[in-house]
């Protein structure tokens, strides 16, 4: 029997014991599936595309002391196996943990910390950015290609949703303070090593604020007394929680409480944006209100991405230009923002990267403006 007579999904096999009209559809014991296809074990013996068959791409944790930790095992083509710990890190572990319903990972142990597996080593040299939906979306060599032994099996320690929380302490109001995070029931602080506005934005949004106006270190809001839970946090600013950001394992640090990190968050009620000095409602000098006071934005680094964010905040489609040099006249209030950097996807200008509000090296002759595009034209 020829290949075509056996159907597009199956390899050649004998159909002597099968009704001829089923031969193109069914792959029984004598049949093998072509490359890129697998047998649908949940729905008979048909060959189906591999990427449509979730049962053949799955993840589980094995041999941990609880459901939130263990050796990472992945199922590929119906066979469970392990991941080698070459280049295994917290960003890889974060992806695995989120696949399993946890908010993130607190550790990415290697060296078969949770025992050695017995199946094949399915993946090696995995590299995740941390934003992938599954471990299979991360960069990696072909399945089964490795130079490892099972004493290098990778594991994860996931963060239980019930075991993490964030609060601000020591501030003059609810929108500022020393950051304290709860991990496994214990409150502690974050070290200010590499702490910046991207990290602060994530924390503030976790707490329901619009974003952050400052990312302070050196225990500006006083020193904590619990353990230092996190150090060297690296957020892009887009993460949903601080635990999704790149960081060493919980408790790993080289800091003292005099380096405790803090934030100043932006309360939605305390910020606003308007255009002034233009010839119509769609253009003008950008003015932002912070804590009840209207002021301007310096044009240092000001570009079309920043202007797009402002225009969308005001209900316009986007921006056609981002003029500087006080093209719409000089403002009279304080210069509220300088060195603003937006990717263009932010919902508000306050979510963009910027120094603390009020910090600048400018004059009003550098006031930034926008020309917005209306939906009608």
UniProtKB/TrEMBL annotation:
Superkingdom as given in the UniProt entry: Eukaryota
Keywords of the record: Disulfide bond, Glycoprotein
A Gene Ontology cellular-component term: membrane
Alphabetical list of Pfam families matching this protein: SRCR, TIL
Limits of the SRCR domain: 59-159, 166-266, 273-373
Disulfide bond positions: 84-148, 97-158, 128-138, 191-255, 204-265, 235-245, 298-362, 311-372, 342-352
Keyword Transmembrane part of the UniProt annotation: no
UniProt signal peptide: none
Protein name: SRCR domain-containing protein
Species this chain originates from: Strongylocentrotus purpuratus
């Amino acid at each position: 029997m020829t290949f075509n007579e056996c159907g597009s999904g199956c390899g050649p096999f004998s159909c002597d014991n099968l009704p001829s009209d089923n031969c193109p559809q069914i792959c029984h014991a004598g049949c093998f599936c072509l490359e890129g296809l697998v047998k649908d074990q949940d729905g008979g013996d048909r060959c189906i595309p591999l990427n449509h068959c979730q049962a053949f791409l799955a993840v589980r944790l094995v041999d941990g002391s609880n459901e939130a930790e263990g050796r990472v095992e992945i199922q590929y083509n119906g066979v469970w196996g392990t991941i080698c710990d070459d280049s295994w890190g917290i960003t890889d572990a974060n992806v695995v943990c989120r696949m399993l319903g946890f908010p993130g990972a607190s550790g990415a142990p290697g060296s078969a910390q949770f025992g050695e597996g017995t199946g094949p080593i399915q993946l090696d040299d995995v590299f995740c950015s941390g934003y992938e939906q599954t471990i299979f979306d991360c960069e990696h060599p072909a399945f089964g290609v490795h130079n490892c032994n099972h004493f290098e099996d990778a594991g994860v320690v996931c963060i239980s949703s019930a075991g993490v929380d964030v609060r601000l302490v020591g501030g003059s109001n609810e929108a500022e303070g020393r950051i304290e995070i709860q991990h496994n029931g214990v409150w502690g602080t974050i070290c200010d090593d590499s702490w910046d506005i991207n990290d602060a934005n994530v924390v503030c949004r976790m707490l329901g604020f619009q974003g952050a106006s400052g990312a302070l270190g050196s225990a500006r809001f006083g020193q904590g007394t619990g353990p230092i839970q996190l150090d060297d946090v690296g957020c892009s600013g887009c993460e949903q929680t601080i635990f999704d950001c790149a960081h060493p394992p919980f408790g790993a640090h080289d800091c003292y409480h005099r380096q405790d990190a803090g934030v100043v968050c932006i309360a939605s009620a305390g910020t606003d944006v308007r255009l002034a000095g233009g010839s119509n409602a769609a253009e003008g000098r950008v003015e932002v209100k912070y804590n009840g006071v209207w002021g301007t934005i310096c044009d240092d680094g000001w570009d079309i991405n920043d202007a797009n964010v402002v225009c969308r905040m005001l209900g316009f489609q986007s921006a056609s230009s981002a003029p500087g040099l006080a093209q719409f006249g000089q403002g009279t209030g304080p210069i509220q923002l300088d060195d603003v950097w937006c990717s263009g996807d932010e919902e508000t200008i306050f979510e963009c990267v910027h120094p603390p509000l009020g910090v600048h090296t400018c004059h009003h002759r550098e006031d930034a403006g926008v020309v917005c595009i209306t939906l009608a034209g």
